[in-house]
Amino acid sequence: MNRRDFIKKLGLAGTSAAAYAACSAYMREALAQSTHTIDDLLTATAECKTQGSLEDIEHVVFLMQENRSFDHYFGTLRGVRGFGDPRPLTMRDGQPIWYQLQSGATSTPPAATAQRIRPYRMPNSAANKPIDDTSPEGTVGGVFVTDPAHDYMSGIGAWNNGLSDKWISKKGIVSMAHYTEADIPLYFKLAKAFTLCDAYFCSINGPTDCNRSYFYAGTSNGKNSNSPFSGVADSVGTAGRANWKTYPERLEDIGVNWKFYQDGLTWTGDPFAGNYGDNTLEYFAQYRANFSATSADPAYYASINKKNQRVNSVLRTDPNKPSQFEQDIIDDKLPAVSWIAAPEAFCEHPKWSPHLGEYYVHEILRAFTANKEVWKKTVFIITYDENGGFFDHVLPPVPPLSSSIGSTSPAITVTSGTTTRDVNSEATASSSSQPLGMGIRVPTLVISPWSAGGRVCSEVFDHTSAIQFVDSWLSAKGKQPKNTNFPGISSWRQAISGDLTSALDFNRVVPLVDTASVVDTARLGVAFNATQKTNANNAGALSPSLGNFNADPDKDKLTPSKQDKTRCEILPLGYDFFVGAYIRAASGGSERVEYPITNRGKLAASFYVIPYDRTGAFPGDGPWFFAIEGARGAPVTIAADAGAYAAFGAANATTKNYSYAVHGPNGYLFEFKGSAASATERQLADIMDAVSADDGKTIRFTLNWPGANGSLKVINAYTGDFKTVSAGTAAASITVDIPTADGWYDVAFVDAVNTSSRYLRRYAGHLENGKISRSDPAIGKLYNAISRIYEDIPVIIAAVAPVAGGAAAATPPAAVAASSPAAPTPASGGATLLNL
């Protein structure tokens, strides 16, 4: 089948089984050639010098696709924080975040028979049958699928003030479906050849245009829906339009060339042309068609409109003539900064399939092979505007909009005004209590000679990071002063979101390339007639059901077993912080739990504090949110009196029981619990600090004993080794060294004598030493909350019995039942396994 025949069949996909099969077969054939394209790019990469800097970059190209979450695409990939995450959020009902309650389960705590849905592989047909990757119906990646809810209200509803336990009721069963390497082969190939970011979040927990406004302008100005960004892009009206400054205007101001490539103007109704309305710049007043005629500076606005392409410019419309994008690469006329928006059919927005997006991306990559000298100087970044309603398990950073829900360190300003907004306003324009974001994690690939190696970057990013990257790059090249910040980005995002430079390695080892490259230089010839376009628009979309969920071939396996346990290289980060936990006197003679946060690292950090000793309403009973700036010299601290404290829950006023979890960047987890009324626990040590020693091979804890009594058992979850440390003959401070696993640590301190004690201090995360390291070896393992060590998942797991109507069982198998950090409950055999 040639490309023209492929396109003809593509127009029928979803309406004819034969057409679908032929389309999918050709798509697989076309994507199979991607190995040659990637090898060709790596071959050119190998010819680059091994030492470089931002100054060696001449071109930055951004492609923003539509509506996919990180776990939805890459939850099974090796080395990332995916389905094998050994430290996921435990929901307040005691289950790990994977086990979401089905709609209608409203009791608190939920009934034992309550239906739960966990991540399952996307089906490839409506029939409730196992997936067959060799099926003539085609692979899962080519299936048209229904579009989950992805508006702002359903987004914050699923997030549920940080408890993240309403995904099914707000987004539906389809939200938990995911793909594998067999389904999206090109994207996995790219992730294994270049750099994948596994902590990149969309900017707002809502839809397309407000997220794209952050991408192009650094802010949505409080807008949390698409309605302010609508209309016909080439109309003449400017009244009521968004009018805050966009980043292309900044580039105009400093004389940096840019262009927006798109295959036609706006959302045309033809899914294989136009830009699906994804060039949000077109909705800003300063980009309207008549603005150059009415502006005080017509030449300026004529310039920004000209660079906002209105012709087919990415895919070939004539198979014998290069597209504008390709021709600019061939002629070495690619602008310094380029943005690309795909047509509807290729943008990956459901119903449209991932394979169509992969095909579009492959055509862009092929264009780069036309001039390897341009490629050697280019960074190509692929990201997604929003999660599109699809599930992801990592908690997004959220600003504390008021002192009742957390605090920030002094250099970070968060305002929540609705009537009087400023650049630091992080609430919606309609409610001072609703945070704009960040939203859910989305896939982000950084493809460049300086990102080769198949590594993972886990620094926190959001869509403003794209602007920050260009700012850092242009400053390095002397185009603007150092440390220039685009004024539209809030103080909180400037701090918490990185600038993407950590995704590049300018001191790299040249990657080895095994094969000579033979690049298919043919291009897609688009030749659709009206009937084909109509059929494509009318093609049905699969809506996964409980039957599909039950047909998942991995339905009897624990969620962490879904992820490839192969380890890979991870890029160095600038995180270095410590969270304490102490019982201290409060005013009026009462006591409280204090958890001061100290940051020694150059990167700012965001934290969730989740109390499990209470179940009341938000915000009084949490979760709470904190943001601490990066250190520039002396460490920075959010002290207890600055908001890092909590009174004992009303139900624990007498026992003074407490149980908390603190989640931070790059898989950081600190659990602390105990009983402040216990005399024996009051004799146990406070942990005052944890620092890197021996270049990250060891983590060193400093313990402060209140008296001469008490002993702690210190357990290394990675090795199973433990030691006992005691107060000695007098109150004193001591240090305890624990070896790490390539910088990864998970250390539990428990009462060594009183086995019924509630006392726990558990620290888990990664020590940085400025060098490339290895991914977490605990990925794909279970944490045993009794022995406090990581254990391999059993090869055979008892099948989960269906409930009435063929639905999956309500809870995980009893032998591996999850439990809350607040009250671990031993399962059969005496073991309690957390974090399924």
TrEMBL record:
The name this protein goes by in its record: Phospholipase C, phosphocholine-specific
Highest taxon above the source species: Bacteria
Disordered: region residues: 414-434
Chain ranges of the Bacterial phospholipase C C-terminal domain: 573-674
Alphabetical list of InterPro entries matching this protein: Alkaline_phosphatase_core_sf, PC-PLC, Phosphoesterase, PLipase_C_C
Single Gene Ontology MF annotation: phosphatidylcholine phospholipase C activity
Leader peptide range in chain numbering: 1-21
Keywords for this protein: Hydrolase, Signal
Gene Ontology annotations of biological process type: lipid catabolic process
